[in-house]
Task: structure prediction
Amino acid sequence: MIMEFNPNNKVVKLCLQGMSKEEKGEPEEAGKLFLQAWNEATYDFEKFIAAHYVSRAQTEISGKLKWLETALQFALKINNDSVNSAFPSLYSNIAKCYADLGEPDKAKKHDELATSFQDRPSDKGPFYHGTKADLQVGDLLTAGGSSNYKHDLKMNHIYFTALVSGAGLAAALAKGDGRDRVYVVEPTGRFENDPNVTNKKFPGNPTRSYRSEAPLKIVGEVTEWVRLTPDELQKWREKLANNKGEIIN
Result:
């Protein structure tokens, strides 16, 4: 079973709570929440995420290695676009553990695996872009617009996702007075994982978010997706307003 990334998933919520404890300097409480997430995980995607976080809470290198290899085991079983971008980081961290344990051959092997998985998205879509702009099939979406999240920032890339719910969220948060629109788009050039979300809070690129310097061509429009409630949307707006992190542009 493979899910679309859902911030309301019980395992994801426990990991977010654990991260909050980490930020407050409470590593033991964080570790308990991560372990609870692991114990409540029921399928491969949840187990992959939970094991990744349990590994972070380990104080012994051998414990960290055990949980990283557990996370890798589930990532390899899933082997889809939501987790493939986690492989370079997973293999690099495993290599570091082996190096710290004095096993250079195993460290070298995993470093080479990390390099072999280096970042080139394999996602074939379909892809979506959320906005309030009224556009037509055949129109091109180009980089250079203002950020929805920092009004004084001119974006060097155009962003899109393979999750229609993610595009719907972007449409709801976009500036403008028009209705929320989600367009089906085709990249016209090379694209990359969105570095603002990939291997940040969660391993890999579970939101399947991408960006490109080349235009996106509109090939259709979606009218049905799961929309946020006004309360959920307000929470997202507050979260973005309070976000002090820098946007990688």
Q: What stands out?
A: Residues 127-241 form a domain with the ADP-ribosylation fold fold (CATH 3.20.170.40). The mean pLDDT is 87.
